[in-house]
Each structure stands twice: as structure tokens, then as C-alpha cells.
Known about the structure:
The protein is an alpha+beta fold. It has eleven helices and 15 strands.
Amino acid sequence: MSSKDWLEKDFYAVLGVSKSASADEIKKAYRKLARELHPDHNPDDKKAEARFKDVSEAYGVLSDERKRKEYDEMRSLFGSGAFRRNARAGAGGTPFDINDLFGGAPTGTGQAGSGGRFGGGGFSDLFSSIFTGDRAGRRAARGRDVEAEVTLAFADAVRGTTMPLTLRTPGVCDTCHGSGAAAGSQPRPCPTCHGSGLVTSNQGSFSFSEPCRDCQGVGTIVDEKCPDCRGTGGITKTRTLNVRIPAGVTDGQRIRLSGRGEPGDRGGSPGDLYVVIRVKADDLFGRNGDDLTLTVPVTFAEAVFGTDLRVPTMDGAVTVRVPPGTPGGRILRVRGKGVVRRNGTTGDLLVTVDVHVPTSVSEQARKALQEFADATPPAPRERIDAAARRVVGGNRQ
Ligand SMILES: [Zn+2]
Ligand SMILES: [Zn+2]
């Protein structure tokens, strides 16, 4: 980890503590997060894994008095003096270069433009992340956003529905209050990491911290495990919400349910719930935006003579008039039998006429069809035939 990396990260915000937090507060905040994000509770959860790493990294710096001081100094230096220096630069002052500050090699991506000189995400990006981070660190922590997927029957997606949605979130075990120890026993400090939860190795002037393998970052070892959480101190809490899915949702759509995510900490507002919609295919109907589609086979005779078709819709059957001489592939529109839109209007049902060609015919049908063929003029292919004759060097096949 380099100095510049330190600047881009708000370790206080990562742990959800204030800049003036005591060592004890930092330790508590870290332990709580380490339990919540414990790999055992979040199998195959890449987000939790990434956060677990961030939290460990933040704790690695803030739990070490010397490193924390260094970090605070660096951020205050960069946040005040350096900023003023740069602001003057436009008015004829010395241009500011981030590399002056740390004496490091240039890290620029080589791209020109406003941030080109500073490399990485650019100067303004660095600042905005530090400033928003500081604000986030001081205020109560907003609950995390949650994403859940629901699979709907085709008709439910068209009409809308209300369904229970069970969400699993990691939380502290109520039996042992997070200690992971069985009643009457106490967790003891991990001898490997001396209770810090982190193993640190030094490389030059920088050090790298990673979660201790023996205690999995928690800092304590539990000999007699709490039976309810199997010693991890955390359990997966489930809560069930009734979620109203509006009519007309489509496959892959994300619906935001404001305030239905995880509850906030210390009076913070809850996060949002994002519901990702999956819609099962239907045997009969398809969707084309707000229109429903349906393909209905007709015989050649029905296409020629015309017919009335009884077809299903999402609410009851309707009669669709197929006029005499309807070609295959024609789409007949049944108004108002499609998907309900947000403004209350409704799409249409589009019925595609599919002229069915039998693959085998009875002797009687064959005779009748031959008679029909003899009595019918050829198909209107004159222009096609003429064009085919004009083609030079065409294959005679
Ligand atoms: Zn427990
Ligand atoms: Zn340990």
C-alpha cells in the first residue's frame, strides 16, 4: 500500500467511526464488521469478501497508533495546505504536483486534460472522495442497499402482483451477543495475532495487513462454541417483506424500493432494496414492449375463406375476425388486451396468423388439392422469374 492509496481511502468511513474515535471504539467497530462479513456467513459473496478486505485494511492502519497518526497527518496536509497551493496555481503560483508531496515516481496515466498531471483518477476525484468520505464518517451510517431477485410467472409480470420476499442478512447472534462462546465460557485472545485480528508484515516503509488465519480476523479464539452460531458470533437473519410488483415489469428490470434495504446504524436511514425481475416464458404468449403477442395456426382454407378465431387473452377469450384472403404472417390487432402501462392505458394483443401447411394429406385431400391446383392460376412470380433469367452466369440448378 502506498501513501497515495491511503489518501484515496477513508478508513474511518470504512469502519463507520468518527475521526476522533478511541482505540477501543475502533476495535469494537472492526470486530462487529469482521463478524458480519465473516466468510462463513457470506459464502460465495464477493461483495462481502471485498468489504472484509477493506475493513481489515482500514483496521490495520487505524489500530496502529503510529500509522494512524501518519495517516491523519497526511490527510490533513493534503486536505488543507496542498489544496490551497493548487488553487493559487491558476493565478500564477507554482503548479502543484502530487508527486512533489510524496517524492514518488509519477503515477500518471499519461492522459491529458484537467486531471492529467495528477494521474490516477485525477486531482478532483481524489478530493471529492476524501471530502465525501469525511462527511460519511461523521454522520450516522446509512443501511446497506440490498439486491434480491424474484422470478415471476408471465401473467404476474403482465398484471402485477404482491409477493413475499425473504431476505437474508448477516447479523449478531442473539444467544452469545456476538462473542461466539457458549454460555458460561469466555473467548480468549488469539495467540497468533495477540487479539488484533490482523497479521502485519513490513516491507520497506510500508506494511501490509491481512486478516489473521487462526481467528479469521476476529481476534479471539472460542474454545466452547455457542451452539446457535457455531462459534462465529454471527447468524444469518431472515426477514420477509411483502413486495408489490407493478404491472408490466419486464425480464431483467430492476425495481428500487426506497428504504427497504438493511436498517441503518446509530439512527442512520435504511438502505434501499433493489428487486431484479426475472420473468418466466409463457407457453402461448410473448411480449413486445407493451403489446402481447400470440401466434394462431389456421388452415389454408380458413385463410382463403376467412374465419372467426376464439383466442385467449390475459382476461378472458375474445373473437378475432380473420378476413377472407388473409396472407400468412399477417398481424391482427386486438386493442386494449396487452400490458397495462404506468399511465393506466393498455397495449394491444397482436395475433399473428400462421397458415399451417400439412406434412401429410389423406388421399381425398390430395385429390381435392390437385383439383384446386389445376383450377388456380400460377403464383404471381413473373418478376422473380424474369430476374432469375437475367442473371448472368447463374447456376442452373
Ligand atoms: Zn452465538
Ligand atoms: Zn488471530
